[in-house]
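Regression check, adenosine-5'-triphosphate case 562:
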Amino acid sequence: MPRSRFTGLIIIAVVLAVLPFLLPNNFYLDLAIRMLINACIVLGLNLLIGFAGQISLGHAGFVGIGAYATAVLTTHYGWSPLAAMLAGALGAGVLAALVARPIFKLKGHYLAMATLGLGIIISIIVRNEAALTGGPDGMPVPALALFSFELSGEKQWYWVVSGILLLSLWASLNLINSPFGRALRALHGSEVASQVVGVDVAKYKLAIFVLSAVFASLMGSVTAHYVGFVTPNVADFFHSIELVTMVVIGGMASIYGSVIGAVLLTALPQALAGFEGWETVAFGAILMFCMIFMPKGLVPTLAAKFGRR
Amino acid sequence: MALLEVSNLTKIFGGVRAVQNVSFAVDAGIVYSVIGPNGAGKTTLFNLITGIYVPSEGQIRLDGRDIAGVAPHELARFGMARTFQNLQVCMNMTALENVMVGAHLRLDRNLFKGALRFPSIARRDAVLREEAAELMRLVGLEAFIDAHADAMPYGALKRLEIARALAAQPRVLFLDEPAAGLNPKETGEVDILVRKVADSGVTVVLVEHDMKMVMNISDQILVLDYGRKLAEGTAAEVRRNPDVIAAYLGTHQ
Ligand SMILES: Nc1ncnc2c1ncn2[C@@H]1O[C@H](COP(=O)(O)OP(=O)(O)OP(=O)(O)O)[C@@H](O)[C@H]1O
Ligand SMILES: [Mg+2]
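Current build output:
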């Protein structure tokens, strides 16, 4: 029994509980909320990339599907936020399932290119359907109202998003240590070995791809409501790369690494804001530095250093 | 009826006829060995029977059912398990988890129940952990029960694969050179282990270069050479066979 499986979860819960009382103003609370939302998306993506070993360079496409399903269906068609959110998730899931079979016949670079293409197609559609989506200018999104309750203000959002993250962390920790999760990790470790013990590899790849797409879409909807506005950037290539970078920096196949990666890379642009136009260069340099000295990512590297696996 | 029946099996890779027109039958409950010089087609034969490769020609029957071309994960359902000559251990998992994966088909693999950690899943996993540890002891890996796979030496990993295969509770177990790279002491342990497995009623199909081990434990031996069946029989019969002597002594000395 891994003794310390939930220790990290408890620490995160405590930090999340006291954080709002330490933050000086809403600017930081807003930053924290964006970190937490990213952490959720990255967690789902890490299940796919880190645990199952299947790269996706188009994951922002699924975030975009959720964000725009929410924006378009609530604004133009008067759907309730919950219904729009679920419709987006359903759409993302169905799309992921449809493309999964052909895509996962591919490996390595080919898989990267195929998912990249998928993401780009989604972002182009969003950009071009200006009548519905507002095109490159984006469109506003109404507040998140569930039944008669309307979510408003950074404080409320913070608690909701914290709750979502804690639940997702708990479920992910359970999943990777369940028969399903072990099969997933096994097909990453040795596809042929997992097959001969009975793992239907194609089915498992499909399942985890759909799961992470649905989750990305749900978090896209949440982001749209929180920000109150969506632009095509949410679905574009750079966002996809950003998400993958968070996975890699935090640590592939590391649940807590997903959180650390998302927190650091969401904060970094803020921290580098003083570099006046050189932020991107500094950003790139830090990433290169991390990859050269910690190719396994932060959390696995530190865990190994301090003698824990 | 034999448990496994192979008839006129052929596999061609480009121009290479790795397995040519091979036929044989394996009765339930025996140790059946496949020997032959390097490149004779032994591993290819295993890959054909366990569904990794699709035969170019011929039939493979398990319990009389034609299984040629059936996917490996389907064959696992029929009670087939195997180990690999080139190690196929999941280095991203612990030793114990590698063994637990072997029990895949005997578990409730539901994603949602797993994510929500249903009590039934948690209970079954706790029992499985014990079963897996027991299997590791059986194959002589008690020292590695808490180890991560990537921290284990080669000889231990070879036996870890056997434990994983046994976790599936197979009816027929294919072992591709389980003693390769092991020292004499470890080889002796694997020898005893294979006997134990066979005695428990599992049919064992064995590829092994260690002739002492093969001659000792095999009920029946198939000799391959250049993809063809050269001879088949008991250890004594095979040892006397002039073709076998020519092929073996001729190429090896
Ligand atoms: N996937 C493949 N593609 C092309 N040729 C192959 C493939 N697998 C095996 N071969 C060829 O088929 C022949 C038989 O190889 P195989 O690995 O089955 O031999 P083996 O009897 O297991 O040998 P060893 O004792 O060295 O393990 C060899 O000539 C090999 O090069
Ligand atoms: Mg071989």
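Comparison notes: The pocket of adenosine-5'-triphosphate (ligand 1) is lined by residues B 13, 16, 18, 36, 38-44, 85 (CB under 6 Å). The longest helix of chain A spans residues 201-227. No diff flagged against the previous build.
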